[in-house]
Design a protein that fits this description.
The complex is a heterodimer of chains A (about 110) and B (about 120). Chain A is mostly beta strands and about 110 residues long. In chain A, a hairpin with a 5-residue loop joins strand 4 and strand 5. Chain A contains no helices and eleven strands. The model of chain A has no long low-confidence stretch (mean pLDDT about 90). With about 120 residues, chain B is mostly beta strands. Chain B is about 0% helix and about 55% strand. Chain B is built from no helices and eleven strands. The radius of gyration of chain B is 14 Å and the shape is globular. The chains are: A mainly beta (about 110), B mainly beta (about 120).
Chain lengths: ~110, ~120
């Protein structure tokens, strides 16, 4: 079993819908990354958080350290949000190592 | 203006060859990483260097040898390429964590390696 699990694996929604992608992890962590991988392959960092909630435009990320769970929300989804969203954690072992989830493929239909 | 750049973008080669992938960052970061993304799109850390010193070395065959001539560059040399080495390799960089505060990583565009 992977240390970092994401759900759903695939998500198709209509433009304008509210999107939630979930990430659960089984190790103690120092921080959690949400990444976006475009269809062309490039990877962009969306958020890094270790507690609470962060918001950037239509994207919101939350984390609950006690429950070992994080969510990424997209409001007013748009076809350009179509991408793979990847959750990655930095363990609390003291190094910078990122452990990745398997990704969620999001498709927004116009 | 590219923050983290990799060359080449595509690399097609025969089994048994030796090849290198170069990575450069102009963000002033002190830590650089190599990741491998396999055919199932799963990413995994391979190496990490901080100020030219190796800090993370995952279970990677010793045919893979990272080299950091300075803290802005981290190159990946692969000897005796095998079919299973076919993947997309991503370089990334960040500032090393200080005082328990971790910093986000910035990724290069990736190098698609195909071994025939």
């Amino acid at each position: 079993k992977n240390e970092v699990e994401q759900s759903p694996q695939n998500l198709t929604a209509q433009e304008g819908e509210f999107i939630t992608i979930n990430c659960s992890y089984s190790v103690g962590i120092s921080a959690l990354h949400w990444l976006q991988q475009h269809p062309g392959g490039g990877i962009v960092s969306l958020f890094m958080l270790s507690s609470g909630k962060k918001k950037h435009g239509r994207l919101i990320a939350t984390i609950n350290i006690q429950e070992k769970h994080s969510s990424l929300h997209i409001t007013a989804s748009h076809p350009r949000d179509s991408a793979v969203y990847i959750c990655a954690v930095i363990s609390d072992f003291g190094n910078e190592k990122l452990t990745f989830g398997t990704g969620t493929r999001l498709t927004i239909i116009p | 203006d590219t923050a983290v750049s990799q060359t080449p973008k595509y690399l097609v080669t025969q089994m048994g060859n030796d090849k290198s992938i170069k990575c450069e960052q102009n963000l002033g970061h002190d830590t650089m990483y190599w990741y491998k993304q396999d055919s199932k799109k799963f990413l995994k850390i391979m190496f990490s260097y901080n100020n030219k010193e190796l800090i993370i070395n995952e279970t990677v065959p010793n045919r893979f040898s990272p080299k950091s001539p300075d803290k802005a560059h981290l190159n990946l040399h692969i000897n005796s390429l095998e079919l299973g080495d076919s993947a997309v390799y991503f370089c990334a960089s960040s500032h090393l964590a200080t005082g328990g505060a971790y910093n986000e990583q910035f990724f290069g565009p990736g190098t698609r390696l195909t071994v025939l």
